[in-house]
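Forwarding these from the shared drive since the link keeps breaking.
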Amino acid sequence: MRVNELSKELGKTNKEVLEILQKNQFDVKSHASSISDDQAAIVRRTLGPSGGHMDITITPKKLSGPITPPPSKSQAHRLIITKKV
């Protein structure tokens, strides 16, 4: 298998896969370098079960009531000092 084939399979760039291999002390020079099944397995394991992708679902939250703006700076930091006589 070549680096570029593994990159395509995992949905990663050639550079990302090359970096993983090089960090694991494998002598790979380019996207056309051949790698063993063991080396490919290490890359897959490094990227995790989802290939480094996370599936995220965002559900919008309904707001109850009107949206009010935060107080202005002048209102938020107003301090009233009174003197007792």
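-- next protein --
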Amino acid sequence: MINNELNPKLIRVALYIRVSGEEQKIKGLSLESQRERLEAYAREHKTFSFRKLLEKQNSKMEVIVTFLIILELMKTGKINISQENIFDDIMITSNV
């Protein structure tokens, strides 16, 4: 049987996620703002290093967000990635 009352713990988690998302947006860490920056960077630098891109990030959160955006851009065909050998740097080529 499903309980129709909301669990207070779930409400707190939902509120935390919403506040964190708004805070990230204000600080420029949201997926949307980071994606815009990365797409602009990709237009300016047609081929660039994944390692060097990550070195420019200021926090673990920025690294994670950047990685997620790279995956999204690769999935949508806006970038291609290549790696010559295992443990070599990953090179990103822009299609935008």
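Residues 51 and 87 are 11 Å apart (CA to CA). Confidence is low (pLDDT under 50) at residues 10-19.

- D.
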